[in-house]
Amino acid sequence: MSSSQLLPFASDYMEGAHPAILKRLTETNRTPMPGYGTDAISEAARAKIRAACQCPEADVYFLVGGTQTNATVIDALLASYQGVVAADTGHISLHEAGAIEFGGHKVLTLPHTDGKLRPEDVDAYLTAFAADGNRDHMVMPGMVYISHPTEYGTLYTAEELRRLHAICQAHKVPLYLDGARLAYALACPENDVSLPLIAACCDAFYIGGTKCGTLFGEAVVFPQKNRAPHFFTIMKQHGALLAKGWLLGLQFDTLFTDGLYEQLGKPAIEAADTIRKALQEYGYRLFFQTPTNQIFVIMANEQLEHLAKKVSYSFWEPYDDAHTVIRLATSWATTDDEVHELTRIIKELAQ
Amino acid sequence: MSSSQLLPFASDYMEGAHPAILKRLTETNRTPMPGYGTDAISEAARAKIRAACQCPEADVYFLVGGTQTNATVIDALLASYQGVVAADTGHISLHEAGAIEFGGHKVLTLPHTDGKLRPEDVDAYLTAFAADGNRDHMVMPGMVYISHPTEYGTLYTAEELRRLHAICQAHKVPLYLDGARLAYALACPENDVSLPLIAACCDAFYIGGTKCGTLFGEAVVFPQKNRAPHFFTIMKQHGALLAKGWLLGLQFDTLFTDGLYEQLGKPAIEAADTIRKALQEYGYRLFFQTPTNQIFVIMANEQLEHLAKKVSYSFWEPYDDAHTVIRLATSWATTDDEVHELTRIIKELAQ
Amino acid sequence: MSSSQLLPFASDYMEGAHPAILKRLTETNRTPMPGYGTDAISEAARAKIRAACQCPEADVYFLVGGTQTNATVIDALLASYQGVVAADTGHISLHEAGAIEFGGHKVLTLPHTDGKLRPEDVDAYLTAFAADGNRDHMVMPGMVYISHPTEYGTLYTAEELRRLHAICQAHKVPLYLDGARLAYALACPENDVSLPLIAACCDAFYIGGTKCGTLFGEAVVFPQKNRAPHFFTIMKQHGALLAKGWLLGLQFDTLFTDGLYEQLGKPAIEAADTIRKALQEYGYRLFFQTPTNQIFVIMANEQLEHLAKKVSYSFWEPYDDAHTVIRLATSWATTDDEVHELTRIIKELAQ
Amino acid sequence: MSSSQLLPFASDYMEGAHPAILKRLTETNRTPMPGYGTDAISEAARAKIRAACQCPEADVYFLVGGTQTNATVIDALLASYQGVVAADTGHISLHEAGAIEFGGHKVLTLPHTDGKLRPEDVDAYLTAFAADGNRDHMVMPGMVYISHPTEYGTLYTAEELRRLHAICQAHKVPLYLDGARLAYALACPENDVSLPLIAACCDAFYIGGTKCGTLFGEAVVFPQKNRAPHFFTIMKQHGALLAKGWLLGLQFDTLFTDGLYEQLGKPAIEAADTIRKALQEYGYRLFFQTPTNQIFVIMANEQLEHLAKKVSYSFWEPYDDAHTVIRLATSWATTDDEVHELTRIIKELAQ
After folding, report:
1. pLDDT > 70? residue D3
2. Hey, which residues 277-296 in chain D have their CB within 8 Å of chain C?
3. Chain B (134-153) residues lying within 8 Å, Cβ to Cβ, of chain C
4. Is residue B243 less than 8 Å (CB to CB) from chain A?
5. Does B341 touch chain A (CB under 8 A)?
6. What angle do CA A24, A27, A28 make, to 5 degrees?
7. Rounded to the nearest 5°, which phi and psi values hold at A22?
8. Phi, psi (degrees; rounded to nearest 5) at A28
9. What are the start-end ranges of the E strands in chain C?
10. Number of C-alpha atoms within 13 angstroms, CB side, residue A209?
11. Nearest residue of D to residue B133 by CA position?
């Protein structure tokens, strides 16, 4: 079934690339390039990312998708006997089909708070592990994984990120940030976590492309040089090394030219704000209060039947026998017309 | 260092996509699509591939790159205690950074003959394994892997493929064909192995896109329905599931419209033939006789120094203290001008 | 530091083997045997286990230790993309150092109730998974793991086991029972779960030896013939195949001669009952009510300091700032004198 | 079928333990001990091994069997993207059912010479890898594995071991020695490789127990302190941590008391020499010239039929249509009577 007739709010990866990217792809299509990201455009993209993150020594690599990136980075940073700490709602915990365990590593889950790990919970967990008399029979926490925005669309504060960093440092455990939707955090007025702050607080992070304007692609940043030796080979071993690596370099070079990456999410945030306001105005209940481009709303099952005829949305979870939580996602590609039409439908259904 | 000033013969993945693909990408860029290959274009591409392979029940999946595809398919078809039989020159044996072993499986190598597995060697190996009193302490061969064309640019004959099929059937071991460069086999006058024959002889195979006209992407075909249960999840687990799956569907839909895939390699074969003739005419020795788009030639190291200033080529292996084997590859994108210029340089160097 | 001067209540694996086993080991020490469990004594042991479990077609294998057994059985029964459902307190969840994940499989945890999985929770989980729209992006539950007695010393009822069996059957998911301490369940008056019932309800289980009278060793039973093809090779692959396999066969042959296995735990249960009564009489609080050979008691930290000089016990977890939960374990080897002395010390400390 | 009526020459693990071990097992059977090798006897055994190897800082661990030990040590020393170099006849290459690959690592094979790796071949391989332009797409050699005696019963010379050590040092690749049958090397007049030399040349090695006088067990030695951090946890993760660890410690403590380990193999070597002489005297052809306790002899298939009625031996490989290579193994337990009877049968069959 094609969803092309429906209003596209199912996810933030329903359309192709930002027009600036498509333009450059077209221009360079017949220019011969060396493979595997050794080309000049990829090198330029790396330099721009280092500058934007204010970490001039960083190693930067380009991979194709989020699950692949998480599995590869986590495998690179963990020793064979270590696991990765994550919120129970983390993408690596729930929705990566066991890609982390496929690499031999356990995901050590902590209960989430609004989709986030609380610094004090991480500290308590790492402290308890170190004190546990049975720790040598257990999986050692070798890394902390967070996502920003989270899978629930929520945001860490700068203060929380700094505390997580301090706690990880104190326990000698690296901190890794999954930025699949990072552009939507950066575009959000509430957000006070900048790229340089992320680079200062994390041992590794990735800047999401797939959901943020590229056709595909994620940029991994290790702020400290040679933090992950032989990462190129590890990428190859994970099937994560793109032959035509310049396709990734070119996309990120475009996103990091003239600050595009930091502006690209703005229409998505504005669209989401408009939709949230409309939902509340017309009496719907939000499941979470989220400031970014994902909206979680509780709808009567009867309403959903009507909605499904006109709007493509994501099922989230059952709420009760008569209601369901759904997710509506805006993106860099969301248009005013689409928002207008959606709010009209919402209003209609509320009556 | 950009290689854009050099004549591009280092590999067959130095340029972007066939213009027909780029055109469609541009046209559909802002059309909303559902994710993960569930879109209508991917479905259409699957139907066209089934038709071209004359296997109407086939399961068809799209992945991003060759190593990823090999690792995912091999993992899907092997039991945990089985390994995959391959030529010692096979891509999975040598140049995938241990991606197969990362999934827990041994690559069981047999000596190659011109880059190929000889059917009689495979038969002898499988027969010997079954008779070995220690076989329960050994890795059971659970699959045979071949590539067509091979890593050396050579081709299996239809007769060889039929014999391999019969041997695999007799031993109840699936046969898997890596078609990373399949378009160049199909375009080669010497080749008598068609897509329907491959589908009739193999339990799984992939139709290469990355080296054959797409930006990226490989199409996996399981001719028998449900031969690899839960392959979608296995792809996700391997980080091989593209969010914007329609990008892959669209590219293969284009290649399998009006027989483009089977014609696309012709200029590459003609170019390679011209270059081979020139090399021999000017007194160079070919390292292998190969009929497809890869040319392996022995050059004096002194000549190479000069060549490197004008041509981008691949180092293959040292030949002796004074000579080196290099690879020149043509592709769908190779132009007459490039061939003409290369033959001119070759002639010049020979004098 | 030797603990040999302390009263041995730290665990149920502090002494060697039941005297009957040691006697036979001594008798057969110089009798040549074929390797890897292909000997006649191992075969006799298998026959006796089949008889005791009333499953005449069962495949029986002998492995060395519990973690090894769990990892090998779970790997044998799961497909590569599946995980194993367990209580969050399960041995495989917490105390096997990631051995299951090392094999590529996720442990899917559910909250425990007294160390047990509740049948209704398992049903709800499996039902919810089947209904989850994102299930193809998640780890498929491919097995349910329980332990009997549990890690908390509690017991499933026959009714609960039958319900778990019915639920697993309905969802087509195998049920696996870890019987590391099974002898102590069988010796417990409260227990109504017999070996034949376990064999009727489970797709695989193991009969614990290490904690139940052998020097080492666990007996895996697959009640249905050929339920785990090539399990011998899988054992080898896991490093779990003992060269002198008859050492395992001999021990289990002894335990399953004249019903020794079912009687061996009785002194341990009686000892534990005596200790539990004493603890309660002298005003200590039990952390769990458990009927088997493990006793979990809350002690003041001050008391523990004194206890540690005379008794070897296990730290379990902190209770509050001033108290700690400890475990005392009895075993087949616990003597009346030891119990008497322990109760005397407990009384003394309480005053 | 019991082989107890046949003369036991099938392997060197057909009988139980050296009487001195059995005696101590019996004496300590009811002495309570702490688990997992933390007991005083294991500590004493470690001290004696350090002294015998003249490496006072060594970390020493006890594991149960050879395949398990190889898999655990190799996994501990390799990075995730590295493989282990071995002879194509190495135990890890052929007869461990893929245990190394199960841990994610490739076995990188080199052709053997009499079952050994030639130092110059290792040097050439490591040098070629470092020079290979494609090395980042390949499995990096992260370790060299040798066995002493080899699987073919042959021995490295002290000079060869020193050269391998120097080569490994030059390439910064650790050297690991599998000493499954080390006692038979140490007892062999030809051997000039001592325990201190092994400790001086290797980053890790194991002293075999299973084939050399224990019921089971291998002692891993890392001559440099903390060479394999968290090895205890890695053992647990591999299912290689024995609960009653003192059983291993006690056996090695016995073997390393009064130099027992270095003398124990002498009768086996003398027996093997007698048998080799008899075979040659009666006109049989040896397949290899081996100085240790394994004898490889070519027999007519007709002769084998008769031999099989009286002697338990190992099939090695077919020689030609009418002949087969078999292996006869002596051990610490081989008696003069058995040797006498075997030579009588051999003589008889030759006539």
Report:
1. no
2. none
3. 136-138, 140
4. yes
5. no
6. 90
7. -60, -40
8. -100, 5
9. 7-8, 59-63, 82-87, 107-110, 140-147, 175-179, 204-208, 218-222, 285-286, 294-300, 311-312, 314-320, 323-329
10. 30
11. D315
Residue A183 to residue A177: CA distance in whole angstroms: 13
Q: Which domains does chain C have, with CATH numbers?
A: 7-13+264-350 (3.90.1150.10), 19-261 (3.40.640.10)
Q: Residues with Cβ < 8 Å from C166, sequence gap 6 or more? A: none
Chain C partners within 8 Å of B138 (Cβ)? 233
Contact B238, B39 (CB under 8 A): no
Determine the pLDDT at residue D2.
Answer: 39
- Arithmetic mean of pLDDT, C315-336: 95
C12 lies within 8 A of chain B by CB: no
Return the DSSP state at B139: P
CB-based contact D234 A136, cutoff 8 Å: no
Q: Are strands D218-222 and D204-208 parallel, antiparallel or unpaired?
A: antiparallel
Instruction: State the best of C84, C91, C102, C325 to mutate against chain A, taking most chain A CBs within 10 Å.
Output: C102
Q: Is A304 on the interface with B (CB under 8 A)?
A: no
- The complex's ipTM works out to 0.97
Give the CA radius of gyration of chain A: 21
Among A95, A98, A134, the residue with its CB nearest the CB of C95 is A134
Over its length of 351 residues, how does chain B's per-residue pLDDT go in tens digits? 334 489 999 999 999 999 999 999 999 999 999 999 999 999 999 999 999 999 999 999 999 999 999 999 999 999 999 999 999 999 999 999 999 999 999 999 999 999 999 999 999 999 999 999 899 999 999 999 999 999 999 999 999 999 999 999 999 999 999 999 999 999 999 999 999 999 999 999 999 999 999 999 999 999 999 999 999 999 999 999 999 999 999 999 999 999 999 999 999 999 999 999 999 999 999 998 899 999 999 999 999 999 999 999 999 988 999 999 999 999 999 999 999 999 999 999 998
Average pLDDT over residues C148-170: 98
- DSSP string for C19-51: HHHHHHHHHHTTS---STT-SHHHHHHHHHHHH
Search chain C and give the residue with CA nearest D67.
C239
Tell me which residue has tokens 């002879």.
Answer: D87
Strands D82-87 and D140-147: parallel
Distance, in Å, from the CA atom of B24 to the CA atom of B179, rounded to the nearest integer, reads 24
Contact state of B140 with C232 under an 8 Å Cβ cutoff: no
How far apart are alpha carbons D79 and D71 in whole angstroms?
13
- Using one digit for the tens of pLDDT, what is the confidence trace for D103-142? 999 999 999 999 999 999 999 999 999 999 899 999 999 9
CB contact under 8 A, A13 and B35: yes
Give every residue of chain A whose pLDDT is below 70, as ranges. 1-4
Chain B closest-CA separation from residue C16 CA (Å): 31
Subunit contact A137:D233, Cβ cutoff 8 A: yes
Using a CB-CB distance cutoff of 8 angstroms, which residues of chain C are in contact with residue D240? 68, 239
Option in C102, C137, C138 nearest A104 (CB)? C102
Crossing angle between the packed helical segments B119-131 and B158-171, to the nearest 10 degrees: 10
Query: A–D: how many Cβ contacts below 8 A?
Result: 44
Of D6, D33, D238, the CB nearest to C239: D238
A99 touches chain B (CB under 8 A): yes
| Candidates B102, B132, B143, partner chain D, best to mutate (most D CBs within 10 A) | B102
Would you call the peptide bond into C267 cis, given omega within 30 degrees of 0 as the criterion? no
